[in-house]
Design a protein that fits this description.
This protein is α+β, with helices and mostly antiparallel strands and 326 residues long. The chain has 13 helices and eight strands. It binds iron/sulfur cluster (SF4).
């Protein structure tokens, strides 16, 4: 795209964004801590799923000082339900790094931000541009798709970042980056993009082009979890500290294949994590059979204390379904 076309394209997209952007809580101010929390939460998670978690998380940890000072278990408890708990652990670690090594000052450029735990290229660019106005472009799936259609050809790897940087409006970097992502999320969607309503239609080389990759095959897994209750308490097991996923979090014990016949199936939950769809039977197990479900590190937890523990998303869902958790 020739240089003389880039200026009007920038103007058109920014004007559209300022009129049409969704009213999202992290767009209300440009505080680096808040932008950081929102960007970490939004990784691999839909906006609608993040909204309430974002509000509650900031209520509990209104500043980086408060976040750094609290225990990891409390941070995980507040993150519960969002999944991908490694994000929360790294955010907490990075907050401690900022307090310990940077005097509580969050770096104001992408290079400095990338040195923090859990902050990759995309996140560093998003925080630096939105909170600090640094002229550095972001690339996510939305931006990549919009660029491929605008230019009429897909790019890969570093070439996408370079192209995003060429189009970036350096005077309005934060708004520009958000505008590109918003266009991809709301108008230039993977399927059925709304080209007639698109603010950059006149510069687009491949309106409506199919940029989707073949859907990866998803795995299906069936399992059963035991819900054992006794005198206002629930039996929970803790995942091992070295587990590759959700280490240290609390969950309903898993039942060996066929053991669900010993109890009553209370409900069946569907739960998806990355490329796997789980079908999970929640089984009320008599107390005398607890041994079969028991895992090392399990314990009885008062129902009133469940919300204070870092629970896996599936366990949270099951406990809510049974009216044991608000
Ligand atoms: S015209 Fe259509 S394909 Fe092109 S950027 Fe706009 S919505 Fe996307």
């Amino acid at each position: 795209m020739p240089e003389e076309e880039i200026l009007p394209l920038r103007r058109a997209l920014l004007a559209w964004y300022r009129q049409n952007r969704r009213d999202l809580p992290w767009r209300k101010d440009h505080d680096a801590y808040r932008v950081w929390v929102s960007e970490i939460m939004l990784q691999q998670t839909r906006v609608a799923a993040v909204l309430e978690h974002y509000r509650l998380f900031l209520e509990a940890f209104p500043s980086i000082e408060v976040l750094a000072a609290d225990e990891e278990s409390q941070v995980l408890a507040r993150w519960s339900g969002l999944g991908y708990y490694r994000r929360a652990r790294l955010l907490h670690k990075a907050a401690r790094t900022v307090m310990r090594e940077l005097g509580g000052n969050i770096p104001e450029n992408a290079a400095g931000l990338r040195r923090l735990e859990g902050v990759g290229r995309y996140t560093a660019a998003a925080i630096a541009s939105i909170a600090c106005g640094e002229a550095v472009a972001v690339v996510d799936g939305n931006v990549e798709r919009v660029l491929a259609r605008l230019d009429g050809r897909p790019r890969e790897g570093e070439a996408v970042w370079q192209r995003a940087q060429e189009l970036l409006d350096p005077r309005h970097a934060g708004d520009w980056n958000q505008a590109m992502m918003e266009l991809g999320a709301m108008v230039c969607t993977p399927r059925a993009p709304q080209c007639l309503a698109c603010p950059v239609h006149e510069w687009c080389r491949a309106p409506g082009a199919d940029t989707s990759r073949a859907q990866e095959e998803r795995k299906r897994v069936r399992m059963a979890r035991a819900l054992v209750t006794n005198a206002g308490r629930v039996y929970l097991a803790q995942r091992e500290a070295g587990a590759s996923k959700m280490a240290g979090m609390w969950e309903l014990p898993e039942l060996a294949s066929g053991a669900e016949r010993d109890g009553e199936v209370l409900c069946t939950l569907r739960h998806s994590i990355t490329d796997t769809d789980y079908e999970v039977h929640i089984v009320a197990l008599p107390l005398r059979l607890l041994k079969a479900a028991e895992k090392r590190g399990g314990r009885w937890v008062d129902v009133a204390n469940l919300a204070k523990l870092p629970l896996t998303g599936l366990t949270r869902k099951a406990l809510r379904r049974q009216g044991l958790l608000a």
